[in-house]
TrEMBL record:
The chain holds residues 189 to 415 of 415 of the full protein. The lineage of its organism: Bacteria, Bacillati, Bacillota, Bacilli, Bacillales. Residues 20-227 form the Histidine kinase domain. It catalyses: ATP + protein L-histidine = ADP + protein N-phospho-L-histidine. It is an enzyme of class 2 (transferase). This is histidine kinase.
C-alpha cells in the first residue's frame, strides 16, 4: 500500500515538473522569436544585429540547458541493470566534460584509490547524467577557474565517488535547499540539475551528501552500499 502511495506521489510530481518545464522552455523560445523578428528589419545597424543575434543564441543555450538537465532524465528508463565499474563511468564523464572545464579554466584530477574495478548495478546513462550534473555544478562554482578532484574508493560498507571543488561554497541554508525543484542561485540556472541527481541516486539505492565551506569549496560524496 505504501509503495503505491509513493508511486502516485511520484507520478504527480513528474507531471507537475513536466508542466513547469514546458513553461520554462517556452520562455527562451518566446524571446528567441522576438529577437528574430527584430532582426527582420530593413537597415538595422550592424551593432543591433549583433546584439539581437547574441540574445537569440543565449535563449537557445538556455533552452538547451533545460533539456540537458531535465528531459534526458524524463526519458523512461530502459530498466536494464548492468554491472558498472564506477571508475570507468567517472572516466567517461570526465572525457565528456573536459571541453567545458577547459573553457572555464578548471583543471580536473582523477584519483582511483584502488586498482580493482568497483562494480555496482545500474544504468550507465543515468549514472553518467548524474555525474555530469555534479561536475558541471563544480565547474560553475569557480567563476575564476580552479581545481576539481574526482575520487573513487572502496569503503567497508560500499564504494564511493566524491567530487571536490575549490569554488564559492555554500551556507547552511543553501545546503538545506539543495534538490528543491527550481532552487538556483545562478542567473542562467534551472535549479533542476540536483533534482535529477537525487532522484537517480535514490533509484540506484545510493546515498548522496554535501559538505561545504563558504568561499572555500564543496565536496559531494555518493555512496553505493554493498552487503
Ligand atoms: P543550477 O545548476 O541550474 O543552478 P542545480 O540543481 O544543479 O541547478 O543546483 C542548484 C544550486 O545549488 C546552484 O544554483 C548552486 O547555488 C548550488 N550548488 C550546487 N552545487 C554546487 C557547488 N559545487 N558549489 C556551490 N554551489 C553549488
Ligand atoms: Mg546545475
Amino acid at each position: 500500500h505504501r509503495q503505491r502511495i509513493i508511486a502516485i506521489e511520484k507520478d504527480r510530481m513528474i507531471g507537475q515538473l513536466a508542466a513547469t518545464i514546458s513553461h520554462e522552455i517556452r520562455n527562451p523560445l518566446t524571446s528567441i522569436r522576438g529577437f528574430l523578428q527584430l532582426l527582420d528589419q530593413k537597415e538595422l545597424p550592424l551593432h543591433d544585429q549583433k546584439r539581437y543575434i547574441e540574445l537569440a543564441l543565449s535563449g537557445v543555450d538556455q533552452a538547451n540547458t533545460i533539456i540537458n538537465d531535465y528531459l534526458n532524465y524524463a526519458k523512461p528508463s530502459n530498466g536494464l541493470q548492468e554491472q558498472l565499474d564506477i571508475k570507468e563511468e567517472l572516466e567517461a564523464t570526465l572525457r565528456f566534460i573536459t571541453p567545458l572545464a577547459t573553457d572555464h579554466q578548471v583543471n580536473i584530477e582523477i584519483i582511483h584509490e584502488t586498482d580493482d574495478p568497483l562494480f555496482i548495478l545500474g544504468e550507465s546513462k543515468k549514472l553518467r547524467q548524474c555525474l555530469m550534473n555534479l561536475v558541471k555544478n563544480a565547474i560553475e562554482s569557480m567563476p575564476d577557474g580552479g581545481h576539481i578532484v574526482l575520487r573513487t574508493c572502496k569503503l567497508p560498507d560500499g564504494v564511493q565517488i566524491s567530487i571536490t571543488d575549490t569554488g564559492v561554497g555554500m551556507s547552511q541554508s543553501q545546503l538545506d535547499s539543495l534538490g528543491m525543484p527550481f532552487y538556483t542561485t545562478k542567473e542562467q540556472g534551472t535549479g533542476l540539475g540536483l533534482v535529477v541527481v537525487m532522484s537517480i541516486i535514490k533509484m540506484m539505492n545510493g546515498k548522496i551528501s554535501f559538505s561545504s565551506v563558504l568561499n572555500q569549496g564543496t565536496q559531494c560524496s555518493i555512496l553505493f552500499q554493498q552487503k
